[in-house]
Amino acid sequence: xxxxxxxxxxxxxxxxxxxxxxxxxxxxxxxxxxxxxxxxxxxxxxxxxxxxxxxxxxxxxxxxxxxxxxxxxxxxxxxxxxxxxxxxxxxxxxxxxxxxxxxxxxxxxxxxxxxxxxxxxxxxxxxxxxxxxxxxxxxxxxxxxxxxxxxxxxxxxxxxxxxxxxxxxxxxxxxxxxxxxxxxxxxxxxxxxxxxxxxxxxxxxxxxxxxxxxxxxxxxx
Length: 221
Hints:
By secondary structure, the chain is mainly α. Helix content is 59%, strand content 5%.
């Protein structure tokens, strides 16, 4: 059963994070509005650009805080977004916003190394990206390489990244324990379910999920 106090604490934290994001963007807009529209001097513009840059960095940090709390790592967020928009062209600006880090392109290279078919459409810094295949082949999803590719700073982050990688294929208890790196992985899995992730077991779908196995049935939490 969900802990109401925990849910309330998370809601308060998210509210504070979003207020921080909103304030940083408002501050940047205030600076832009105060910039002279006529006879703009080079030094005036440099001061404006520096101040706006500082507030945009604050907004990126706020985006990262929310992403970390709601989803986990930047790579998991990127994969979730790609899997939610298969076959669509996604701009670098969108991907940077989703990842909320400057090194988002490196995370895409890491996803490609796992086996995800992510193409760059065209050339140049503005070229969009596209997820070609909506899921990994089952042999790749269940491979040792996919398990070893999982990052994350705690068991919950590692579990959700792995489940996002292999969905809709189920994972065995042995695979999940190796990914989580703790024998208490079922407790962390329960935390993900309490957060809203639709993680199914054999009881939910006995014809598709072997006993003891789990799968992420829906990519939305």
